Amino acid sequence: MDNNTGQKKGIKTILILAVILLLPGFLYFILNKSGSNSYASLPIFGKKEVPGTTHRKWGRDIPDTIYHTVPPVDFVNYDGRPVRLLSNDTSLSVVHLMYTRDASLSRMMARKLDQIASRFMQNKKVKLYSITVDTAYDRPAVLANYAKVYKPWTKSWFFVTDPSTDIFKFAKESLLQDAIPTADPTKPFIIGSNYLLLDSRGRIRGMYDINVKTDVDRLEDEIKLLLVEEIRQHPATIEQRR
Predict the structure, then answer these.
(1) Alpha carbon distance, N-terminus to C-terminus of the chain
(2) What is the largest CA-CA distance in the chain?
(3) SS3 167
(4) Which candidate, 192, 126, 117, 190, places its Cα nearest to that of 147?
(5) In the UniProt record, does the keyword Transmembrane occur (predicted)?
(6) Torsion angle (degrees, nearest 10) of CA 78, 82, 87, 90
(7) Which residues are CB-neighbours of 95 under 8 A, at least 6 positions away?
(8) What is the DSSP letter of 170?
(9) Could you give phi then psi for residue 138, rounded to 5 degrees?
(10) With a cut of 50, which residues of the chain have pLDDT below it?
């Protein structure tokens, strides 16, 4: 009985050691074959197309998908300098619509965004754009006076305008946001109440309504999440840019 008990214990010990040694390798093999990731990923907003082509990942053919993207656009900053939205392929962008004559929604959105700008002021990969829809009135000098309370020159924050851009078409077709001129002199424009989070490829990865109390906090958390995603997907590019 003692010999049998000892043999059984020895077999159990060997099996436990085998499991400990082989399990990590087995899990790694399964993960590579499935091509899945354990970290969370943000959604991609807008229409998407499947062109019928594929690419290979971990030995598997994955269908290609064409997502809605915001194109690069040239604006003029509050200091008169040219600014290009999505000029850097390693930067994330937070974008919203506004106009200086709006004493309610636009001011509230700028005030709330100042919290985000301050928290990420040391991270040059996070850029913020407050885009006026009142391009005839909101010239750089007007924007400079409006923005000075937020000290955007200390942050990666741009208050931009450009009368040569069809801002209403850009808002609707690219940003998927409302921007409508009205006949009401006290409220000349209707604008969307969302902040948009864009990844380095111009895809809309988040929409955050200023009217929802938790959305500003969620924006901060999801900027951090998207930064991690960008590093995972483009480590070589980011490393070269440092």
Answers:
(1) 68
(2) 98
(3) helix
(4) 117
(5) yes
(6) -50
(7) 70, 85, 128, 129, 131, 175, 195, 196, 198
(8) I
(9) -85, 70
(10) 28-29, 31-32, 34-38, 236-242
Tell me how far apart the alpha carbons of residues 67 and 37 are, in angstroms, rounded to a whole number.
20
Name which of 184, 181, 130, 122 is nearest 157 in CA terms: 130
CB 192 within 8 A of CB 45: no
Residue from 156, 132, 133 nearest 146 by CA: 132
- pLDDT given for residue 221 in this prediction: 95
Q: Tokens at residue 92, please?
A: 């994330």
Sequence-ordered list of residues with C-beta below 8 angstroms from that of 212, at least 6 positions apart, any chain: none
pLDDT, tens digit, for every residue of 159-176? 999 989 999 999 999 999
Q: Structural domains in the chain?
A: 69-233 (3.40.30.10)
**Nearest CA-CA partner of 195 in 186, 204, 187, 203:** 204
Question: Tokens at residue 220, please?
Answer: 């901060």
With contact defined as beta carbons under 8 Å apart, do 66 and 48 qualify? yes
Q: Which two tokens stand for residue 189?
A: 């424009």
Chain length of the chain: 242
pTM for the full predicted model: 0.78
Q: What are the phi and psi torsion angles at 193 (to 5°)?
A: -105, 20
- What pLDDT sits at residue 90? 78
Residue ranges of alpha helices (H) inside the chain are 2-34, 105-119, 140-147, 167-169, 215-233, 235-241
Sign of CA dihedral 89, 94, 96, 101: negative
Place of tokens 């590579």: 32
Q: Which two tokens stand for residue 57?
A: 């990942």
